[in-house]
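job 3f2a | input accepted
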Amino acid sequence: MPTLLPRAAAQTTTPGEFELTADTTLSAHPYLTQPALRLQEQLRAATGFVLPVTVAGTGASSGDGEAPSIRLDIDPSLATEAFELQTTPHSIRLAASTERGGHWAVQALLQLFPADVYRRSPVADIRWTAPVTRVQDTPKFPWRGAMLDVVRHFAPTRDVLRFIDLLAMHRLNTLHLHLTDDQGWRVEIARYPRLTEVGGWRPETQLGAAHGSDADGRPHGGFYTQADIREIVAYATARGITVVPEIELPGHAQAAVAAYPELGVGGSAPATPWTLWGVNPVIFNVEESTIRFLCDVLDEVIDLFPSEYICIGGDECPKIQWVEDERTQERMRELGVHDEEGLQSWFVSRIGQHLASRGRKLLGWDEILEGGLADGATVLSWRGRVGALAAARAGNDVVACPEDTVYLDYRESDLATEPIPTGTVTTVETAYSFDPVPAELDADEARHVLGGQANLWTEHIDSMRGLDYRAFPRLAAVAEALWTVGDRDYAEFAPRLTEHLARLEAKGVEYRHADGPRPWQQRPGVSGRTRSAEEAAAHLARITVNIG
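job 3f2a | predicted structure (548 res):
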């Protein structure tokens, strides 16, 4: 019998099956038309059955007609993303109180059919049956996401849309899109066209992760037009997913400074985006004109993304340019700021005030805790769990994404065949162990943890095949960690994951096999940069001192 992933809160199964046929009727409450259309699309692609969607009123489907039926109903008693699913030999009823809950009901239903239901062309000689069952489910956390870095290696719009489909398949509801960094600027800003004309392209790219690695000698770049962004946002919305944009500041700024040198510190500026990996000293200056520039940029971003949250980065911002620049030191005296950490806090607070004036909330990496946290800011806690503890105890909301657990660009084993091995070993079981709420928080503090997300940085991911390998099946494990209420057991999860791999294969996902990378997934001769468990522990200890 097919099993669900993420695991449901409650599921009971009895003997019998529902069989989908070309005569099956498909109807939906007006508020659930989008989930019904997604179900129609997938069923038609795999089975060839057209199944027109009929918009119906309220009330449960009787299932008394001769033809099998599928109906999507509104049930106001259910929580925001909760759903119920009930199959009989003659009918299927999906119920939710919101469109998003309807999407998750559809995703659960698809998993009850044979795995070939995920194929994109009709499959012959299959009986499309689902077991007679009742599912009642609701997610544990409201923020269940993945961050995709499209800067280090650009992902065309079609690849982003495909990734959105994979998030929806796993009932993840947030795509955090990392759009700007030292190595490129990936979103069109009409008022400042040089951000993409200059900042969107770098002359070459570092090969491998080790310091001193060679470059490939090939230009790399690309960007999303505003029409592209609207397409991505609309596509995600129609699948129950919110897209949260990230515009990096005050560090990770070289692409922007190369495009507009007046944004830089000290009068000198690089000519191109950065061609290396790592932490770059180039940062924004702290003049009012630069704040206005960034607010102009964010105004266009806000108009493109309806997300409640706008991420402003705030991470890995070396202060050496500010320390050594006379004008910056003069500016600090003007502002009454005593040190460079306080200056970064002032910078982030100014941007946060502007976002608040536009009705949005500031989201930033946990470095924004250093120097004082902006009012109302939400913290992405990535350097262990220290940021989550500090922010929650201060009354600020938290999205957990600790690098030792859910950085899916990190290597999955110590095998010599791992493609460009980086970071610490992060296995499927490691990802499954993810718990966004630190045990040290009391109940009131824990309410500030909105949930969590996996992060996929793309220094060493230059294609969708590479993204598939890094993300799956670990992202499936993260999805269950963020969705499933109650105790979890990896031994119980593992056989369901094995079954789930057939769905990924049907969908064309080139996931990592348990015994290691396939030959075409290896990158022989390209150096990595790894970290031992002892080095990782020392790294986290240093962070504790800085934040604590």
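job 3f2a | The CA atoms of residues 281 and 320 lie 7 Å apart.
job 3f2a | closed
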